[in-house]
């Protein structure tokens, strides 16, 4: 299939769709496409789901009661200082069996490949790809090893108590000190002579759609101890378990899973990986090599995406940035094209050279000329196609600039608004019409068109037909300060306005 991109008097260039598409591991689409599937889901929702939910609740409550009894009189500090012993420890296999019954009642058919190692052989177990709440079936099968988990899971109703019984290592993602403490705790337990349980980790740190293995976090590889890699697969016709940043909610996935007569899950225990001396000194190398072994066993590629990419994409979706879910791919392509770190887009925006016949309709040739790229670079074509939503050979350059610049570094809401105003300032005179104002607001503050228009009317009290950025920020600080403060309690840095004012003078 060929696509032609033409520019005014410039000759056409023929582009081929033979470039390898970039993977986005954070997207999962799930739809019931056939009438049969829809009817079956309705019937099983009425007949099967109530029975399953009732039995599952019974086993959850029973396991929770045993965990509550087992943890009675044990402080949080004691859970961190030493492993459970005596009758408390003997309760753990029973609780694990009760939880395993929940998966069986939910229709999970578990297939085990390989042999689980003992703690003496491998103090750590690394499971990937992490794609679902269902992955915990491996933990239950192993009898309840300690897990490295988000701190928020401790407060989950019922399940929080069950997780606490495994003596987990909690990580508070937004607290840098917590991560360091977690690494120290992993090192302490894996090298201890005490009878701690194995530690199970999800080294990717977030859920993906299993299309690839993303970057492994280094924390669990610092101890330099043997690790058993464990691969997990869900070979089902309808994937009702994958839970990603863009896709069905957890409730929808749980409901659709419970309406399946059965859901297949394969857990493969690979041979224990013994690090060499170089890997013991370099946790990143150790993590990458373990990932390579697992990717080979799974038959999928490795892609250097990370949790920070997820965090960026989530923020972009909240702001309603154009092509928010594609910005991870955009970031990677910009690295390939050596655009990242050059500040080329920002320099372009602030200079007088930011001109195009119609920035909402830019061709491929115009795009590479503006960005000073080569027309024969495949990555440049891939980057262009991301924004060519309808395959018309045209993109809105403003969408590209806003997505790139708004997610670079850790910009404040005010800084992002400044960028949006500059990008949608069509006449480069420091004034935004109602249409461009709405674009700037809707695609940075996540507002609807009607709300944005109402805001425009309130700022444009004199009915001039345009607003300036300083007028808007002053109005917002008095009427809706949460837009600018963004919940941080910090006031806007008004000196940033000078950037835009100087830009106005230069254009004038």
- Give the radius of gyration: 27 Å
Q: What is the general shape? A: globular
Strand content: 5-15%
Oligomer: single chain
- Into how many domains do the coordinates divide? 2
Taking pLDDT < 50 over at least 5 consecutive residues as the criterion, the unreliable ranges are 1-21, 485-508
Topology:
Elements: E1 2-7, E2 10-16, H1 35-71, H2 76-81, H3 86-105, E3 108-114, E4 124-128, H4 136-141, E5 146-150, H5 159-164, E6 169-171, H6 176-190, E7 199-201, E8 227-233, H7 250-258, E9 263-269, H8 277-281, H9 283-298, H10 307-319, H11 327-336, H12 344-350, H13 364-370, H14 378-387, H15 397-407, H16 413-423, H17 434-445, H18 449-459, H19 469-479, H20 481-485, H21 497-507
Parallel strand pairs: 3-9, 4-7, 4-8, 5-6, 5-7
Antiparallel strand pairs: 1-2, 8-9
Helix pairs in contact: 1-3, 11-14, 15-16, 16-17, 17-18
What does this protein structure show overall?
With 508 residues, the protein is of the alpha/beta class. It has 2 domains: 35-305, Glycerol-3-phosphate (1)-acyltransferase; 309-507, no CATH class. The protein has helices at residues 35-71, 76-81, 86-105, 136-141, 159-164, 176-190, 250-258, 277-281, 283-298, 307-319, 327-336, 344-350, 364-370, 378-387, 397-407, 413-423, 434-445, 449-459, 469-479, 481-485, 497-507, and strands at residues 2-7, 10-16, 108-114, 124-128, 146-150, 169-171, 199-201, 227-233, 263-269. A 7-stranded mixed beta sheet has the order 3-9-8-4-7-5-6. Strands 1-2 form a two-stranded antiparallel ribbon. Strand 1 (2-7) and strand 2 (10-16) form a beta hairpin. The chain is globular. 38% of the residues are buried.
